[in-house]
Amino acid sequence: MDFLEKISFNAEGLVPVIVQDIKTNEVLMMAWMNKEAVRKTITSGKAYFWSRSRKKLWLKGESSGHYQLVQEIWIDCDEDTLLIKVNQIKAACHEGYKSCFFRKINKRGKLELVGKKIFEPSKVYE
């Protein structure tokens, strides 16, 4: 895993990661990875992240079954951000939407719902 040494992790040992649907190019989410998450993602083919709030590694989909099957991993020119292209099982957002970016700020500065809810979180998460 030579490229692990190329990644510029921040002072907390994390790198930001953008996750994108490989079929539609839709941006699904942004999360953080530490070295262990990058390693596990590469070896398992499923996306792992570092939870800053829970201070632990987590497999995306471990609670919901909505896994992210990794197809490609890209690194930016500064080597401080990753782009992961995935086949998303059902949804990426814990609020029930395919993408975490299900709202936009319109020209009047108001939040506008543009995504369609595809599952009910209360029925998936305890």
Order of helices and strands: EEHEEEEEEH
Report strand %.
25-35%
> Number of helical segments?
2
The CATH H-level homologous superfamily:
Phosphoribosyl-AMP cyclohydrolase
The 3D shape can be described as globular
CATH topology annotation: Ubiquitin-like (UB roll)
- Tell me roughly what share of residues is in helical segments: 10-25%
CATH architecture: Roll
Across the major sheet, the strand order is: 2-1-6-5
Structural class: mainly beta
| Computed CA radius of gyration, to the nearest angstrom | 15 Å
Number of domains as seen in the coordinates: 1
Strand segment tally: 8
Main β sheet profile: 4 strands, mixed
Q: Give the N-to-C terminal Cα separation.
A: 36 Å
Walk me through the topology.
Layout: E1 15-21, E2 27-33, H1 35-44, E3 48-51, E4 56-59, E5 68-75, E6 82-88, E7 103-105, E8 111-113, H2 121-124
Parallel strand pairs: 1-6
Antiparallel strand pairs: 1-2, 3-4, 5-6, 7-8
Walkthrough of the structure:
It is a single chain. The chain has 126 residues and is mainly β. It has one domain: Phosphoribosyl-AMP cyclohydrolase (Ubiquitin-like (UB roll), Roll), CATH 3.10.20.810. It is 11% helix and 34% strand. It has two helices and eight strands; from the N terminus they run E-E-H-E-E-E-E-E-E-H. Strand 3 (48-51) and strand 4 form a beta hairpin. The protein is globular, with a radius of gyration of 15 Å. The mean pLDDT is 96.
